[in-house]
Design brief:
9% strand, single chain, hpI Integrase, Chain A, 44% helix, 9 helices, mainly alpha
């Protein structure tokens, strides 16, 4: 008889979460091979989950003048392929700040196609999560979900309200239907500009003051 049969193992919940700041994130992205930079940039600056990254398509990326929106519509299951995000709030729009705009704009030019998976090994085959994990492990060991934690921390430091942070992370059901409904919600542009300004300041006294007051200025450029 197996003495462990039917035994429920309780997952540890006290495991510390590793979070890095915007300067470390930027340096890390620049140190990566080109095909990993866009993946990690989207984690640090948009907070997508691993399955959402694997299922993200070229058509899900809207780029405007220095900012944009990611339309998260699917996640990837290694057995079923593309599936609806879990939880329901995973279907959402996420504003693209200026650093991610530049990364994705260059990535799309290199990719050279107008549809299919944006980070896939092919238009229909997603990137290997294990391969991306192992390449990063050989450097400093930061995991994709820790990049997502860092995104959440940076949004808070930039002064983005909790309700909208939850929306962008897919924690609460604030998603909106339709590809162009963002035109009715100016907070996407405001938050993209606010987050861009926070990232642009680096570790300057201005950012320290921004974090202290939890109020980030909106760029007018």
């Amino acid at each position: 008889m197996n003495p462990t049969a039917g035994l429920e193992i309780i997952a540890r919940r006290d495991k510390p979460k590793r979070v890095v700041g915007p300067d470390v994130a930027s340096e890390m992205i620049q140190s990566l091979r080109v095909d990993d930079q866009a993946i990690w940039g989207t984690v640090f600056y948009a907070g997508l989950r691993a399955g959402e990254l694997q299922a993200l398509r070229v058509e899900d990326v809207e780029l405007f003048d220095g900012w944009g929106l990611l339309h998260v519509r699917q996640s990837w299951d290694k057995v079923e392929g593309a599936i609806a995000p879990k939880p329901k709030a995973g279907t959402r729009q996420v504003p693209i700040p200026e650093p991610l705009y530049k990364i994705l704009d260059e990535h799309l030019l290199r990719l050279g196609r107008t549809d299919g998976l944006i980070f896939g090994r092919t238009a229909t085959e997603p990137f290997s999560y294990n391969a991306v994990r192992d390449r990063q492990r050989s450097q400093d060991g930061l995991q994709l979900h820790e990049g997502r934690h860092s995104y959440s921390s940076m949004l808070a430091a930039a002064g983005i309200p909790k309700e909208r942070r939850d929306r962008y992370l897919g924690h609460a059901d604030h998603s909106m239907d339709g590809r162009y409904t963002h035109q009715l919600d100016p907070s996407y542009l405001d938050d993209a500009q606010t987050f861009s300004e926070y990232l642009r300041l680096a570790d300057t006294p201005a950012r320290v003051e921004m974090v202290r007051t939890s109020r980030a200025p909106v760029s007018t450029s």
